[in-house]
Amino acid sequence: MADDLTRASLPQRALSGHAAVGLLAGGLIYLVALSGMLAVMQERWQRWEDPHVAEMPSASPSAVQMALEHKLSTDGKATEHTYIMLPKEGLPRLEVMTDHGARYYAADASPDRPSRHTWTDFLLDQHYYLNLPMTPGLVLTGVLAVMLLVLTVNGVMAHPRIFRDAFQLRIKGQRQLARTDWHNRLGVWTLPFIVTLALTGAMMGVGLLVVQAVALDRHDGDVEKAYAPIFGEHPAHDPRPAPTARVDAAMRWMSQHHPELPITFVAVEEPQTAGQQIIILADQERRLVYAESFLFDGDGRFLGMVGLSDGPLGQQAIASIYYLHFGAFGGVPVLLAYIIFGLGLCVITGTGMTIWLQKRRARGLAEPRLEAFWAMVIWGSPTALLLTAWLRFVTNGEATLAPWFWGGLGAACLVAVLRPGQWIKRSVPVVLAAGLAVTGIAHWAYYPHQALDVAFLDLGLVLASIGIIITVSWSRRRQTAARNAVHMEATPTI
Amino acid sequence: MLVFVGWAFVCAAAGMLALTDGAWGLAMGTTTGMIVALALLAHAAFTSPEGFTAEPRVRLEQPRTAVTLPDFGRRATVFVLVVLANLSASLWLGVMLHRIAITLEWKPADALALALFAVPVLGALAACFQLLQRSLLRMTFAPLAMIATGAVLWLMT
Fold first, then answer.
1. Looking at chain B, which terminus has fewer C-beta neighbours within 10 angstroms, N or C?
2. Which of B3, B55, B78 to mutate against chain A (most A CBs within 10 Å)?
3. What is the pTM of this model?
4. Is the dihedral of CA A439, A445, A449, A452 positive or negative?
5. pLDDT per residue over A222-240, tens digit each?
6. Which residues of A touch B130 (CB under 8 A)?
């Protein structure tokens, strides 16, 4: 092996490294890609899992103020942070969150139901942290993003005919050839997306370590001070009691001075203390920065802007990471494009490992248990995600979903390893397709009055089901054709 | 020739978008470009000719070489070098880049952005270099180079 590698050309050595990293990180990258593809629609999923909540195009400053006061008074205990999600295109709801829970409010500030988007939160936790505790989870996903970057670079290096083969997709040839074409062509044409995703993901994940290291180096370990050049200073701590912050006054100031900027989010730091500060995030049209932060004191008097949209270039670049990563910079068309690219990344990851396994099989080194494990990861993960969605509905959002997902997927993988065989590829995709169709139809039937763009998720589930059925049927037809071709070849002619 | 003309048009369009709408325009243009490319790819897939479908001959089951302790040790060392050593070394170099940027009176936000950008990029490039190498010794060059560069920057600040 070492001798082979010594003699190998650059593309061969790059391919060898590509395979090594894929083997090491492929499964987890697949899970992060799958949850990321779904997380692109996080706002719609939040509405999908709890469709009865009051929705409105906007909320008046006085309604927001009343909702804030109601939440703080019903909590009955101090909170360090209060976040108010204002109605916006993807999520037209008014939600107030404190350290003690979250609640929706109607347009007239009358209290609606407590927030229960446990499935969406679980999905996001999986994408950000693989459901691990925050710091190690974020670092792990950050390292996976770096691995994705490595896979991209050595994948391109391993592909000397990248331009010549740019539009060659031989899906009607040998299955291994078709698989390789899918892997390479999708990889090449989604390259800007994958590099963006990997780089922004790595900056978010590994960036946590960077900021902690910078904090240790320059700010005696104070992480908030290290973040301050980007997100602004934390307000001075002053615990003396004070009336509730005048969010309404701050919002009115915004509508007078920046009527063109829609407010999407309001935060009150250390509410009901003399040191409280209001932060208003206002959306920026045709920009990659996620917002501009406007700062106000507790009386709603304007203090200044953080500079996310017009500060130093580095500040603007960091403020652009989130929108770039989740495709939130161009409305629904870009979200749909990101779902397609995300699906492409899942296919690239899935076919990559399968190509390697089939190459080994062709060399007489078949790994049936590993093949079964991989097939279960590919088809079992979305099935397990679907089951957690059902669990969320059955328990009305009370169940903790992560143990069910990981326990279920782990058990399924164990069964696959112990009983490898074609049954996995034959049955699990069918279960997934049936589950998706049943979920879409049942959800639509149970919640017939949901908003149109949320109902499209039900349609999406049914379409995904049809897509899986078509793909699996096509794959089986090709498999049968391949067997017949082998049979014809083996049959002696007269 | 046509391929190069096509790529030249793509680059020119990207440049124009970046000039008129900045990073947002570039992102929108790239997204649109990728969607168009995937549509062309889908067309290429549907119109691809029927190929030879028979699966390649599979060799008989080959005898396997057991993973020996030295082999396992080598793989573990590769993992340590490619993941842990690179991460630590790129983190060190990233923090030192931040330090030198502050010394050069960069704005703090720019210095932090430099470090945030540099760490994953350096880590990834180092891993790519390592995975092309033939020996473990040569694999150590990448993290050692980052540590040495970081040390030089440290001495300069």
1. N
2. B55
3. 0.94
4. positive
5. 999 999 999 998 888 899 9
6. 17
